């Protein structure tokens, strides 16, 4: 009975994260001007497409760090590694987008081509930074959990 409740709790958290990701994706594709959705659009403009994965990872890390106790080190380690990889994926996506933008606008001059590619490079760097921040916070809580056990 206890194991069934534990599995139900795990799947409910996973399902909530998935639903949250779908809501973010739908709001990014729509033109809704409600204040919370405006902030999601603003974050999307700064971080790029990887926000769809990074935001649920950040929420899952907060949940794991503050609510669960037993066995949370493995979950936090998984979240930290995944956040780093998603952040680096955002870097690759941003650099590819910048390269395509430079190639498409090179006929208008080199300065225009580079200037038009800078937002994509900025998104790439911010995406990496967000992934690393999530990973560092996860490592910090892994350290605290290990210290409290001793």
Overview of the molecule:
With 150 residues, this protein is mostly helical. The chain has helices at 2-29, 35-47, 51-66, 72-105, 110-149. The model has no long low-confidence stretch (mean pLDDT 77).
Short description:
This protein has 150 residues and is mainly α. The chain has helices at 2-29, 35-47, 51-66, 72-105, 110-149. It has one domain (2-149).
Main attributes?
mainly alpha
Which structural class do the helices and strands define? mainly alpha
Report helical residue fraction.
Answer: over 70%
Count of separate structural domains: 1
Q: Helical stretch count?
A: 5
Describe the protein's topology.
Layout lengths: L1 H28 L5 H13 L3 H16 L5 H34 L4 H40 L1
């Amino acid at each position: 009975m206890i194991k069934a409740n534990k599995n139900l709790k795990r799947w409910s958290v996973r399902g909530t994260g998935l639903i949250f990701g779908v809501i973010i994706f739908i709001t990014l594709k729509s033109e809704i001007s409600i204040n919370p959705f405006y902030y999601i659009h603003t974050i999307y403009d700064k971080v790029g497409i990887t926000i769809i994965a990074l935001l649920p990872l950040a929420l899952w890390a907060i949940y794991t760090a503050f609510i669960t106790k037993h066995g949370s080190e493995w979950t936090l380690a998984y979240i930290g590694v995944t956040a780093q990889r998603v952040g680096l994926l955002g870097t690759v996506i941003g650099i590819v987008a910048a390269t395509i933008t430079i190639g498409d606008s090179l006929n208008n001059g080199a300065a225009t081509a580079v200037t038009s590619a800078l937002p994509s490079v900025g998104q790439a760097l911010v995406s990496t930074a967000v992934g690393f921040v999530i990973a560092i916070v996860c490592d910090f809580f892994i350290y605290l959990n290990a210290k409290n056990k001793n």
